Amino acid sequence: MSIWVDTHSSLSRRTLSSALPPPRKMIKLGALQRTLVVNGEPWRLFSCMWLHAGVIHLVVNMLSLLFIGIRLEQEFGFFRLGPLYVLSGFGGSLASSLYANPAVPVSVAGTLVSVGASGALFGLLGAMLSELLTNWTIYANKCASLFTLIIVIVLNLALTFIPNVDGSAHIGGFVAGFLLGFILLMRPQFGYVSKKYIPPGYNSKYKKSKYKLYQYILLVSALGILLAGYALGLIMLFNGQTIGRFRRASQ
């Protein structure tokens, strides 16, 4: 999960001091804070996903990565899963920076500190869903697999409602990962044979294309939506706009 801390609240600092690193130390190490991002430190959108607020936070996220990530990396390899993980984390950081919780005063919202890999982890969950959809024709027990995955996703999204958990990072990472799954996790359709394995004299009219038409449509659509979402989000962020509150963010 991703955790945010209010750096202005003395109560928050006293309550969390025994379990979490001081907010100022997290900021120094690269934690996400919207005010710092828009004032010349956009690298925090990436650095925050490698930081955690204590040992328990780290262990929880690494166990999640262990259960979710190993299967995907075994099936698709590091060079697909690595970019998916990082770009999902970026999507989560961007959503976290843009979301202004109506319950938080405007003067405080821009100074909240967020750390954690949850955006990236939820991106892997989103990618698992889109991978199942885009490779639908090669799966057996499709409906059972889809139902099981949806239950897992819903249970994980329930973490969004825990106090001090950065739910916007979860949702942003999930959406980014869902779109990235259509782009990076396509599988060849059943019956496809690479040219180098086709024997001489084989009638090419029986050769199947590598991917189905709907897979290409999903890829192009997801790529367009993802790039537009990143561009719009960055424009809004650096123009001081937020989601969740119909006014400009305090900077």
Please list the strands of the largest sheet in the order they lie side by side: 1-2
Number of alpha- plus pi-helical segments = 11
Mean pLDDT score: 81
Count the domains: 1
Number of strands: 2
List its salient traits:
2 strands; mainly alpha; 251 residues; disordered C terminus
Helix-strand layout with pairing:
Blueprint: E1 3-5, H1 10-16, H2 23-29, H3 34-38, H4 44-47, H5 55-76, H6 78-98, H7 106-109, E2 113-115, H8 118-134, H9 142-157, H10 167-184, H11 213-238
Helix pairs in contact: 5-6, 5-8, 6-8, 6-10, 6-11, 8-9, 8-10, 10-11
Report on this model:
The structure is a single chain. The protein is mostly helical and 251 residues long. It has one domain: Rhomboid-like fold, CATH 1.20.1540.10. Helix content is 59%, strand content 2%. The chain has helices at residues 10-16, 23-29, 34-38, 44-47, 55-76, 78-98, 106-109, 118-134, 142-157, 167-184, 213-238; strands at residues 3-5, 113-115. A two-stranded antiparallel ribbon has the order 1-2. The longest helix is centred in the C-terminal third of the chain and has 26 residues, at 213-238.
